[in-house]
């Protein structure tokens, strides 16, 4: 006790309830007016979902499940549409929007990592309340391993938030990531971990994994331009030898690797070396999409953020919005594993995270496909399809509900008013 009081005053001051996860109500039963299962089956009416110890134990006709549930707590959603908890596969909880480079510089150079982590706690809670019960947070932008800390705090029930899969610091070669344009005399924090050459890359990947990275994120390209042949092209950040080292070491350690690739060249190189996901990818062309579909490479297109930052950034950005829309239309046709990702944090967390749904539907997805992109498809991209992303027996009891039919109007997902994570109701 004395040792605790001296060494861990803050932890000891917390009530016990904040140090341990709240136990899930052992048994509850949800009465769903309409159920969308997340794997694309036609919606069903008047369904029951039995939940035991944070997992879905059974799904079936309400009368049958109600009887089986006995004295379990009844959660009445009979006038709502129930879906699996949503998954956003591209967020930055440690960023608060950066249309201009000055906004990004301010966060890195004027805010301490503890302050940024406090803001990240608020961002995570916002995500959960909007129905995102899982996020893949894909780079701390100079905040080191604060994502691992937040993930742990959420797991332990210290603060509310989604399940997190985290990429920690991300990688770029020396000089290929901001802050930039400052006097060379200043020692500035890096927005990523710089790594050059195979040896540094191997060491860097090992470091990040040992400190808690679930994913490795690499900035594959930069210097975007429109070529004479009309393609969105880019300059490669790494040699083939270096990029191969990233993929080999990441996979050897049992992790997955995400590549930021905007232009044709970056997407081509990331596909060649077997990246698990392509981030953004507005430069996707039909030939590259065919390769992604054949290889089973997932694509996280982050459409809203591109449109959001384009007017403020000017230059090539308004064109990039058009490239992205055309690429999505073709990618949907070719059956690419398009995974819902917003880049929230790249835009302010005060904006909804559901904006990408309408853009996906406008560019060729059915509402059902758009829902799947943020449920079962995203779960597959994360390698969590046996745990997350569908309302089926054995999956985590992550559920959301909305008062309007999202298959009739996808913007109904902006009006989620019930959220359950692992059997615990976090919003009603
Ligand atoms: Zn991003």
Specify the CATH architecture of the largest domain. Alpha-Beta Barrel
Total helices: the number is: 16
Beta fraction? 15-25%
Largest sheet: 7 strands, mixed
CATH topology type of the largest domain: TIM Barrel
CATH C-level name of the largest domain: Alpha Beta
Which blocks of ≥5 consecutive residues have pLDDT under 50? 1-21
- The order of strands across the largest sheet is 3-2-1-4-17-18-19
Percent helix: 25-40%
CATH superfamily assignment of the largest domain? Metal-dependent hydrolases
Characterization of the model:
It is built from 16 helices and 19 strands. With 428 residues, it is of the alpha/beta class. The protein folds into two domains: 27-83 and 390-427, Urease, subunit C, domain 1; 86-353, Metal-dependent hydrolases (TIM Barrel). The strands form five sheets. The chain has a seven-stranded mixed sheet, covered by helices on one side. The chain has a five-stranded parallel sheet with strand order 10-13-14-15-16. A three-stranded parallel sheet has the order 5-6-7. The radius of gyration is 22 Å and the shape is globular. It starts with a helix and ends with a strand. Residues 1-21 have low confidence and may be disordered. The structure holds zinc ion (ZN). Residues 90, 92, 138, 343, 346 line the site of zinc ion. Zinc ion is lined by residues 90, 92, 138, 343, 346.
Task: Please write out the topology.
Elements: H1 2-7, H2 9-13, H3 16-19, E1 27-35, E2 44-52, E3 55-61, H4 62-69, E4 73-84, E5 86-91, H5 101-110, H6 113-129, E6 132-137, H7 146-155, E7 163-166, E8 171-172, E9 193-194, H8 197-210, E10 215-219, E11 221-226, E12 232-236, H9 240-252, E13 256-261, H10 264-272, E14 277-280, H11 286-295, E15 298-300, H12 303-313, H13 317-334, E16 337-338, H14 355-362, H15 367-373, H16 376-381, E17 399-402, E18 416-421, E19 424-427
Parallel strand pairs: 1-4, 5-6, 6-7, 8-9, 10-13, 13-14, 14-15, 15-16
Antiparallel strand pairs: 1-2, 2-3, 4-17, 11-12, 17-18, 18-19
Helix pairs in contact: 8-9, 10-11, 11-13, 12-13, 14-15
Bound molecules: zinc ion.
């Amino acid at each position: 006790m004395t040792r605790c009081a001296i060494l861990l005053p803050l932890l000891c001051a917390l009530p016990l309830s904040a140090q341990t996860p709240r136990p899930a109500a052992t048994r509850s039963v949800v009465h769903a007016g309409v159920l969308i299962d997340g794997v694309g089956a036609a919606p069903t009416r008047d369904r029951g979902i039995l939940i035991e110890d944070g997992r879905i134990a059974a799904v079936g006709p309400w009368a049958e499940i109600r009887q089986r549930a006995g004295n379990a707590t009844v959660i009445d959603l009979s006038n709502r549409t129930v879906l699996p908890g949503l998954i956003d596969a591209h967020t930055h909880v440690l960023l608060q929007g950066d249309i201009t480079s000055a906004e990004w510089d301010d966060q890195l150079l004027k805010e301490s990592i503890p302050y940024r982590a406090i803001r990240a706690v608020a961002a995570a809670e916002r995500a959960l309340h909007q129905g995102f019960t899982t996020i893949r947070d894909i780079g701390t932008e100079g905040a080191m391993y604060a994502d691992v800390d937040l993930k742990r705090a959420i797991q332990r029930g210290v603060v509310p938030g989604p399940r997190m899969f985290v990429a920690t610091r991300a990688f770029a070669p020396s000089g290929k990531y901001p802050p930039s344009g400052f006097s060379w005399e200043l020692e500035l924090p890096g927005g990523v971990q710089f790594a050059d050459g195979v040896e540094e890359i191997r060491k860097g990947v090992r470091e990040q994994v040992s400190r808690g990275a679930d994913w490795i994120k690499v900035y594959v390209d930069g210097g975007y331009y429109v070529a004479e042949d009309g393609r969105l092209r880019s300059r490669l950040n790494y040699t083939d030898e270096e990029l191969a080292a990233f993929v080999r070491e990441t996979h050897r350690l049992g992790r997955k690797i995400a590549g930021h690739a905007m232009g044709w060249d970056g997407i081509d190189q990331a596909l060649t070396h077997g990246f698990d996901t392509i981030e953004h990818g507005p430069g996707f062309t039909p030939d590259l999409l065919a390769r992604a579909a054949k290889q089973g490479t997932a694509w996280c297109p982050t459409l809203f953020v591109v449109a959001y930052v384009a007017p403020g950034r000017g230059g090539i950005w308004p064109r990039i919005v058009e490239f992205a829309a055309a690429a999505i239309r073709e990618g949907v046709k070719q059956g690419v594993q398009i995974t819902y990702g917003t880049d929230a944090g790249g835009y302010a967390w005060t904006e909804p995270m559901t904006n990408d749904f309408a853009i996906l539907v406008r560019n060729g997805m059915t509402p059902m496909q758009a829902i799947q992109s943020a449920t079962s498809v995203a779960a597959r991209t994360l390698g969590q399809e046996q745990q997350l992303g569908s309302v089926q027996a054995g999956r985590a009891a992550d559920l959301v509900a909305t008062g309007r039919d999202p298959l009739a109007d996808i913007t109904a997902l902006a009006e989620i008013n019930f959220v359950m994570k692992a059997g615990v109701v976090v919003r009603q």
